[in-house]
Specification:
Blueprint (H helix, E strand, L loop, with lengths): L8 H54 L1 E2 L15 E4 L6 E6 L15 E9 L7 E8 L11 E6 L4 E8 L4 E3 L2 E2 L13 E9 L5 E9 L14
Antiparallel strand pairs: 1-3, 2-3, 2-9, 3-4, 4-5, 5-6, 7-8, 7-10, 10-11
Length: 225
């Protein structure tokens, strides 16, 4: 019976080469799968944040109001609804009933001054984030003050339009504080389009349309006018 023949050096080198190729293939495939998974999860998280921001803006708009009560001889307006065009992120300010009490005994109500606007990213020049400002204290400067929170990063476009029921038109701006604009009335509906970039560099658009139930000034019996 002949003894078993051993492997030659060439056969050993071929086997090692094949094993190395298989290991490399498995490693590269696993790495690509991991990277793709991370990118998909990142896109999903980005979409989730954008949808949450639109939901929050929708709540602000549905609770927006202006007050018909004004103290005698008081020249200022402390409740407003102001929509302004800006590039790439439009700006919309309002008085709402969406403030949440976070401290026991805090001297505030559910009313708040809120502004949605574009905020330049200090760490990434040229990038604009969608931010929300909220102040629980209503004062004579409804467009200023309060705390700012970034809700969506790197926004390509944030377009807001306002439905003018009297003319059956969509307006690009709205201002209840100006007699020559839309004094003492809110838009019947607001249309919002938010555009982001996906991981391939393509545009990803989310849109919603919100009806505002309180379009006329709030007037309570016995209040100032």
């Amino acid at each position: 019976m002949r003894g078993a023949r051993g492997m030659t050096l060439i056969e050993v080198m071929l086997a090692l080469s094949m094993a190395t190729g298989i290991i490399t293939f498995v490693y590269v495939s696993a790495r690509d799968v991991t990277r793709t998974k991370a990118r998909i999860e990142g896109d999903a998280e980005r979409l989730r944040e954008a949808q949450m921001a639109l939901d929050r803006l929708s709540r602000d708009l549905r609770s927006a109001y202006i007050s018909g009560h004004k103290k005698p001889l008081q020249p200022v307006v402390d409740t407003v609804f102001v929509g302004e065009q800006d590039d790439p992120v439009d700006r919309v300010s309002m008085t709402t009933f969406t403030h949440v009490h976070r401290r026991y005994g805090a001297k505030d109500t559910d009313q708040a001054e809120v502004t949605w606007f574009g905020l330049e990213d200090p760490d990434h020049p040229g990038r604009v984030n969608l931010a929300r400002r909220e102040s629980p204290l209503l004062d004579e400067k409804p467009l200023e003050g309060g705390a700012v929170q970034v809700l969506v990063e790197d926004v390509v476009d944030f377009d807001v339009q306002y439905y003018e029921a009297e003319r059956d038109e969509w307006e690009k701006e709205w201002d209840t504080s100006q007699a020559t604009a839309q004094p003492n009335r809110l838009p019947l509906q607001v249309r919002i389009v938010l555009t982001l970039l996906d991981r391939f560099g393509g545009e990803l658009t989310l849109a919603t349309q919100v009806s505002l139930p309180m379009t006329q000034p709030i007037l309570l019996p016995g209040g100032f006018q």
